[in-house]
Design a protein that fits this description.
Keywords: Phosphopantetheine, Phosphoprotein. This is Amino acid adenylation domain protein. It holds the Pfam family AMP-binding. Belongs to the ATP-dependent AMP-binding enzyme family. This protein is an alpha/beta fold. Helices cover 36% and strands 20% of the residues. Among the domains are: 163 residues, Rossmann fold (3-Layer(aba) Sandwich); 98 residues, ANL, C-terminal domain (GMP Synthetase, Chain A, domain 3, 2-Layer Sandwich), CATH 3.30.300; 68 residues, Orthogonal Bundle (Non-ribosomal Peptide Synthetase Peptidyl Carrier Protein, Chain A); 197 residues, Rossmann fold (3-Layer(aba) Sandwich), CATH 3.40.50.720; 147 residues, Rossmann fold, CATH 3.40.50.720. The protein is built from 31 helices and 41 strands. It has a 7-stranded parallel beta sheet, with helices on both faces. A 5-stranded mixed beta sheet has the order 11-12-13-14-15. Strands 16, 17, 18, 19 and 20 form a 5-stranded antiparallel beta sheet that branches. The longest helix is centred in the last third of the chain and has 21 residues.
Length: 982
């Protein structure tokens, strides 16, 4: 083959219906990818693209990016990958430098592209004509294929020109060494503006493999990455950054993960691979995965050498070799006189290669400086590239990387010339001189900047000036103003001394500091500054990026809630900036408070699905969430009934943790019916081996999935991982053993939120949960998603059941409640009422579901072999009115007076007690006393299961609850606390 297009088309002919490329949202077969890319090629040619012209791609990493790349190459063009996350000036410079006549993008990006103010014609992927035409362009191996821009010392990046022949040579070598096959699943990790994306993409597409594009969320942490590797069955990872390799090993060790999924080969590149990082990888993942240390500059088509890391690594080895030349490449170690070094001598690495670049676009002087005539032999067009890297040759012929000859470094796999950053800093008005050094911070390289300035400049100002021209990975993480630069005896800046000087951490604020534009923004921003103890931020900063977290939200709201009642905890997770929070506060403030009589709505056990078979008798079960309040009560009841229960418990010393819970709640010991399995639900197969997982599935008759994150606010990502992904992992037990019966613990909060959001009618009378039904609250939305997963299994022939739990309260027998009583919203509400002697007057049917009653209902259902329904509501069938609840508090000796809801909030927010105000904030978020139409109807559940022993919610029960709260110190005193009003 003579070009990249031919290599791809061979795969299309051999594997037309194989999946070629996939991301989390979409996939294309080879035939479809061929057709989609041909549409792009036809559009380009039709609009006048000439062979060898540059075409810029302005897209987020996606299937569309690969479609665009192939389309450009088919049309004879040269692709120029841009990153929309990079500064406008950088992208504008690249488009202008290449004089790209066309820019491929989608409609969503048009507004951002307009700001670039370039003359390129936009080719919109989402508006292409559907046609079956094709193009035929004579592309030779020495024709240009792409240009990658790397950091440059002049203040602008350098465009490196690469040819088809280099890619063909690279792919051929990588296919041989990594043994890529059509059945492989290859991971595409790098951004397309980074040259590592080239071998990842084409080594897969040339071999009929599946190329999976991991997205930013999936590669943001070792946890997400490993989960994706498992889920997608990845077998080959062409390259990941060296630092990330270390993170994977550390995470896997901490979480007891012993296997790297199905991955048989992985390359690491970008920075020095130390012996310790390689040893950690081998210790953690064993010898099942082959590890390659890869080295190569963009200027020689990505790779120049490689080294297969041995299974046993000498403890004295500090630096893992970068190895020997790849195919079509020759390496020379050269001293300052231009002579080849002897073995063991340190010199600069010069590279001759089939894939050597044609130089830097529009920079002839820089090109002539590093691309020179080969003085040693006439091979590969007679040229060598002077890499600027210092290496030495070992006795066995392998090379070891020593350092950079100049100040260029790599940060998170991105090649950076420090001089470019220093140059940009010196362009900032007021800065006279600047020096940037690299510091090791927890095994990760970060940039630290020192500067001399005429005046005091805020770090936020400097950061925002730099962000106009530099991508985020080139922004220093630390800064310090100094009076003068230290110099070494040689007359050069003493960078080693600067490395030893501590500097201040800086915050990567948004584009520029935007000051408050109204009183609401000013109030909220001031609260942020006080609580977070921070300056130099504006109304566009992200709360969590400037040091905020969930506890800080409470503190901020405690300061502003009195004035802005329309803001809630969840808003900080969803809106995140002062600007957006203020907009919501203003909108809510304009709404009139409406008090209306509430008509109660019975929320029944929908959807209705019939059970058409008799279930097997249950003798043993798998139980998740056994250390939780409900889970421990289910475990105790099952053990008492001599049901063998396999409790999935994560973390260190799982058996000890479970023992403590059982002793705490029941004063009981473990017995022969309780079996502990150390597993983590956020991992596939619970982190067990496949054989162990299969064995577990066939040991039991039923599964009770009681584990969940039940907080009512937080990051969606976390709730998805625990409540949705965790449920998927537990459901996989059914895939192993289809005879298992699955019992899923959910919450009545799902149906209440459906009612509050006006979506209850969409739920009624259905025999499934509609696919498009979503909730605004992340907690209940993820629980609804989990319910859908469980009930969808019924269509596949599995036996699954849902239990929506009500407001779980202390035991009917003795009032004992969960260990972390202070985190329960309902108990915190009671505490506040007792603390201040007041309560808001609302119209609400209050559900008390004693935990021993709830666990009895669930276990009764689990052990039944005949069912009339699949969805159960596990709550008290006779809720009491809120006023009755207040009467009960008074009857047991706590004087609590009802007052208008708005007046009550005003009263508490004006108290000097910080505890009272903080307690109120969470309750105003929806977890406290409220006007509500919702009544959780469980009458059909109780009738179906034959439950007759219903506990009474009376004075005696209320007394038990409060006596327990008093005993554990949750409620301090049996009296009203008088406060001095502000």
């Amino acid at each position: 083959m003579k070009n990249i297009v031919e290599g791809f088309e061979l795969s299309v002919k051999k594997f037309p219906d194989h999946i070629a490329i996939k991301d989390k949202n979409r996939y294309l077969t080879y035939k479809e990818l061929d057709k989609e890319s041909s549409r792009v090629a036809v559009e380009l040619v039709k609009n006048g693209l000439k062979k060898g012209q540059f075409v810029s791609i302005f897209l987020k990493r996606s299937v569309d990016t690969v479609v665009s790349i192939l389309g450009i190459l088919k049309a004879g063009g040269v692709y120029v990958p841009l990153d929309p996350a990079h500064p406008e000036e950088r992208n504008r410079y690249i488009i202008e430098d290449t004089q790209s006549p066309f820019l491929i993008t989608k409609s969503d990006w048009l507004e951002k592209i307009k700001k670039l103010n370039v003359s390129s014609k936009n080719i919109l992927l989402d508006r292409l004509d559907d046609n079956d035409e094709d193009v035929s362009v004579d592309i030779q191996e020495n024709d240009l294929a792409y240009v990658i821009y790397t950091s440059g010392t002049t203040g602008n990046p350098k465009g490196t020109l690469l040819r088809h022949v280099g890619v063909l040579n690279l792919v051929s070598w990588k296919q041989r060494v990594f043994n890529i096959r059509s059945e492989d699943r290859v991971l595409q990790f790098a951004t397309f503006s980074f040259d590592a994306s080239v071998p990842e993409t084409f080594v897969s597409l040339f071999n009929g493999s599946i190329l999976y594009l991991i997205d930013d969320e999936e590669r943001m942490s070792a946890e997400h990455f490993l989960k994706t590797i498992d889920r997608e069955g990845i077998t080959v990872i062409p390259a990941i950054p060296t630092v990330f390799c270390n993170q994977l090993s550390k995470y896997a060790k901490t979480h007891g993960k012993r296997k790297f999924g199905k991955v048989r080969a992985v390359g690491v590149a970008g920075e020095l691979l130390t012996g310790e990082v390689a040893r950690n990888f081998k210790r953690q993942f064993g010898n099942e995965t082959t590890l390659f240390n890869l080295y190569g500059p963009t200027e020689t088509t990505v790779a120049a050498s490689y080294y297969e890391v041995p299974d046993e690594i000498d403890e004295n080895m500090y630096s893992v070799p970068i190895g020997k030349a790849i195919d079509g490449t020759k390496l020379y170690v050269v001293n300052e006189k231009g002579e080849r070094c002897k073995v063991g001598e340190i010199g600069e690495l010069w590279i001759a290669s089939v894939g050597i670049s044609l130089g830097y676009l529009n920079q002839p002087e820089k090109t002539a400086e590093v691309f020179i005539k080969n003085p040693f032999e006439d091979i590969f067009e007679g040229m060598v590239y002077k890499s600027g890297d210092l290496v030495k040759e070992l006795e066995d012929g392998n090379l070891v990387f020593i350092d950079r000859k100049d100040t260029q470094v790599k940060i998170r796999g991105h090649r950076i010339e420090i001089a470019e950053i220093e140059n940009r800093m010196c362009q900032i008005e007021g800065i006279l001189d600047a020096v940037v050094v690299v510091e090791e911070d927890n095994a990760e390289k970060i940039l630290k900047a020192f500067y001399i300035s005429t005046d005091e400049l805020s770090h936020a100002f400097i950061i925002n000036e730099l962000k106009k021209n530099l991508p985020s990975y080139m922004i220093p993480s630390k800064m310090k103003r100094i009076e003068e630069l230290p110099f070494a005896p040689t007359g050069k800046v003493d960078r080693k001394k600067l490395k030893m000087i501590e500097a201040d951490r800086v915050i990567l604020v948004t584009d520029e500091i935007v000051n408050p534009r109204n009183q609401v923004e000013e109030d909220i921003l001031n609260a942020w500054k006080r609580v977070l103890n921070i300056e130099g931020i504006g109304v566009k900063e992200d709360f969590f990026e400037v040091g905020g977290h969930s506890l800080k939200i409470i503190e901020v709201l405690a300061e502003i809630k009195k004035k802005y009642r329309g803001l809630f905890i969840k808003d900080f997770f969803e809106l995140r900036t002062v600007e957006k929070l203020a907009a919501k506060a203003i909108k809510e403030y304009k709404k009139e408070v409406q008090v209306k009589e509430t008509t109660f709505v019975q929320l029944k056990e929908y959807p209705v699905l019939k059970v058409d078979k008799i279930l097997p008798k249950v003798k043993s079960v798998v139980l998740t969430g056994a250390t939780g309040f409900l889970g421990s009560h289910l475990l105790k009841r099952l053990a008492d009934m001599k049901i063998h229960t396999y409790a999935i418990v994560r973390g260190n010393q799982p058996e000890e943790r479970l023992k403590k819970k059982l002793n705490k709640y029941f004063h009981m010991e473990m017995n022969e019916y309780i079996h502990v399995v150390n597993g983590n639900l956020t991992q596939r197969f619970f982190g067990l081996s496949v054989d162990e997982f299969k064995e577990l599935a066939f040991k039991v008759d039923a599964v009770i999935h009681s584990a969940a994150d039940v907080r009512h606010f937080g990051e969606r990502e976390h709730f998805e991982k625990v409540n949705v992904e965790g449920t998927k992992h537990v459901l996989e037990l059914l895939d192993v053993n289809p005879d298992l019966v699955f019992h899923h613990i959910s919450t009545v909060g799902t149906v209440e939120d459906l009612l509050l959001e006006g979506k209850w009618m969409e739920f009624q009378g259905k025999n499934k949960i509609p696919e498009d039904l979503q909730l605004n609250n992340v907690y209940t939305d993820t629980k609804l998603k989990a319910e859908r997963l469980v009930l969808d299994k019924v269509k596949e022939g599995y036996q699954t059941f849902i239990y929506r739990m009500g407001n779980l309260t202390g035991r009917a027998s003795d009032g004992v409640f969960q260990e972390n009583i202070d985190s329960n919203a309902f108990y915190r509400m009671m505490k506040l009422m007792i603390l201040v002697g007041k309560a808001p007057d609302v119209n609400w049917m209050v559900d008390f579901t004693p935990i021993d009653f709830a666990s009895a209902v669930v276990t009764t259902s689990v052990l039944k072999t005949q069912h009339a329904r699949r969805v159960y509501h596990v709550n008290h069938p006779e809720p009491i009115h809120y006023r009755k609840f207040i009467d009960l508090l008074n009857e047991v000796g706590y004087k609590v007076e009802l007052m208008d809801k708005i007046e009550y909030e005003e009263f508490v927010l004006n108290l000097t007690s910080e505890e009272a105000r903080n307690l109120l904030v969470a309750q105003l978020d929806g977890d406290g006393a409220k006007d509500s139409e919702a009544v959780f109807d469980s009458r059909d559940t109780m009738t179906s299961l034959g439950i007759k022993n219903i506990p009474e919610i009376n004075k005696e029960y209320m007394k038990k609850l409060l006596e327990h709260a008093f005993e554990v110190g949750f409620i301090k005193a049996n009296k009203i606390v008088e406060e001095v009003l502000v």
